[in-house]
Specification:
The chain contains 4 helices and no strands. By secondary structure, it is mainly α. It has a domain of about 30 residues. It is flat. It starts with about 30 loop residues before the first helix and ends in a 13-residue tail after the last helix. Pfam families: FAM32A. InterPro entries: FAM32A (IPR013865).
């Protein structure tokens, strides 16, 4: 088997542009293909700007405040539950001393099969 070495390229032979990637060709609109209509487009843009300035363009949509919570109810409940569990875990760890933690670890290691056999850890 023979093959050509070097970089991989897309069919067509042109390498990818490093910054922009592959650009898609845009279709020309019928109005642009016909030639003019710049005056109509400018008039419609001006009318839209005037309507927006006078407030006739419908109800104004205010952007949400920057500190707004965009999570769903389920996400909010999950975060609350996780925070509560984390708090309980930390409270449980804070009440145990070093010797108690080592005792619990050694009990856990003793309950494992021989495959996981590790000598005792820590004092006594």
């Amino acid at each position: 088997m023979s093959f050509v070495g070097g970089k991989l390229t897309l069919k067509g032979g042109e390498p990818l542009k490093t910054a922009g990637g592959v650009k898609k060709k845009k279709k020309k609109k019928a109005a642009e293909a016909a030639g003019g209509d710049d005056e109509q487009r400018a008039a419609s843009v001006a009318a839209a700007a005037a309507a927006k300035a006078s407030g006739l363009g419908g109800a104004p949509v205010a952007p949400p405040p920057e500190g707004a919570d965009r999570r769903t109810d389920a996400q909010r409940r999950r975060d609350e539950r996780m925070a509560k569990l984390e708090e309980e875990r930390l409270r449980k760890i804070a009440t145990k001393g070093y010797r108690d933690r080592m005792k619990d670890l050694n009990e856990h290691l003793a309950s494992l099969s021989e495959h996981h056999d590790i000598p005792k850890v820590g004092p006594g």
